[in-house]
Amino acid sequence: MKLVIGGCAQGKLTYVLHKYRLGEDAVWDGCLPASGEVCGKTVVIHQFHLWVRRRLLENGRPEEEILEFLKECPDCVLISDEIGNGIVPIDAGEREYRERTGRILIRLAEQAEEVERVICGIGQKIK
Amino acid sequence: MTELILGGSASGKSFYAEQEVLRLAAGTDAGKYYLATMQDKSAEGQRRISRHKGMRAGKGFWTVEQPVDIHLALEKMAGGGRIALLECISNLTANEMFAGGRCLPEKNVAEKIIRDIGALGEGLTHLVMVGCNVFEDGTVYDGATMAFIRVMGRIHRELAASADRVVELAAGIPILVK
Confidence band (pLDDT; 50, 70, 90) for B123? Predict the structure, then answer.
């Protein structure tokens, strides 16, 4: 698994598709493919942060669910917005979204083969 | 040479940008121009402007006020070598996008600004541009603000792609991106 993080509107998806020579058909936007749907192919999970956000709203267990997904589908690129570089929000739900997304990304970065940060369309390898 | 300088608010971008202009100008007789885009008349805005003026004092910059149509700044410069510091892309974008209380279409604004900055660069020896990282707070703002963030993203990506050098500032420390 490879992890790509960066700010909103920084060209992360374009960067990933170009780097790994993939087409739009490899992209799952804000969702994870169901079990068995993508056997053996490289999968790009775009807007991973929105998937986390949705699972939190649905009272899911994103921390466990993503690890289960990665066991089945280790050949994937996870793309997430950096969402933590701002004022801590007043709203408790928004705080929890940032906190849990950040912790999940730390956990995923530990297990990733490679972590890149994209800024203005330029990738910086940070692991 | 074109250089894009990034970073959050108060990360030391302006000071670094000024040093870059001085470095590029050293040993040449090129004119140093500061392209000012801010048109904030509030007390807070005036304080920011004063702080920046104080920081530039004695460094030999000519200030050109150019809140929109940034390429027209060329008409206000002398001939010969010219090194310009454009400060900053956020203000320029906001001025172009929200002129007269309207919100102009994203595509038009982004393309116009990229074209104008391209034309500006053509008339200069070196161009140092200050951007701003408004992309990482995870907040979903109102439609106009989100449109502004997308336009800023596109302009920053295109400027970074064509720049010779891209530097990000963190707590005043420059980190080479490109």
Answer: very high
